[in-house]
Amino acid sequence: FYKPKKSVFGELRPRETEIIKPYLYEQGKRIAYITGTALYNNMGLTTQVPKTVKIASRNKRIYINSGSIKAKPVKSYVDVTEENYSLLEILDVLKDFTKIPDMDKKSGIRFLQNKLNGLSEKETNMLIKYALKYPPRVRAFLGAILNVISGQENSNLKQSLNPLTTYSLNLNEDILTTAPNWNIK
């Protein structure tokens, strides 16, 4: 339930994120997070606003069909907690990088570099650990960006990849200088 706020335009409904919030928790613990275009819009990577929100969870399929709010489930690669969901959001950006609508790739790479630069060493290690559960193109992409930031290759990510596989992200060396080292084209 909510108490509607009054404005000069009449009663205001709660924001969409406030309506979805109870679905993201179970018994006070986070079990899911918002992903997809809604997440990318919230991060400022796209101006598109999705009609249907995607909610990622490991063990629960969350559907919402309440008035104008519609949500469908997406499978998370790892268990979602309050400590790791922001790292999983970064990995989702890496995973869907080529599918994010109307995003400039150069500014997207810059955004990811800033995000990864702002992580502590512990958070970076956790991110790498979670990335090992994601598809190979995500591991290669993360490795290439971390390579730019630190100047050295992450051996865990590098060893998890098949050296003969190439990953098509439509990135050239002007956008991501370390892309060829990670078989990214």
Descriptive key words:
alpha+beta, 4-stranded mixed β-sheet, 7 helices
Write the layout of secondary structure elements.
Elements: E1 5-7, E2 10-12, H1 16-20, E3 25-26, E4 29-30, E5 32-35, H2 37-42, E6 52-57, E7 64-66, E8 69-75, H3 85-95, H4 105-117, H5 121-131, H6 136-150, H7 155-159
Parallel strand pairs: 6-8
Antiparallel strand pairs: 1-2, 3-4, 5-6, 7-8
Which structural class should the secondary elements be placed in?
Answer: alpha+beta
So what's the oligomer here? Answer: single chain
What is the radius of gyration computed over CA atoms, rounded to a whole number of angstroms?
A: 18 Å
Largest sheet: 4 strands, mixed
Number of helices: 7
Provide the succession of SSEs. EEHEEEHEEEHHHHH
Q: Would you count the extended β strands for me?
A: 8
Strands of the widest sheet, in order across it, are: 5-6-8-7
Low-confidence regions: none
Let me know the average pLDDT: 92
Helix content: 25-40%
Amount of beta strand: 15-25%
Anisotropy-based shape: globular
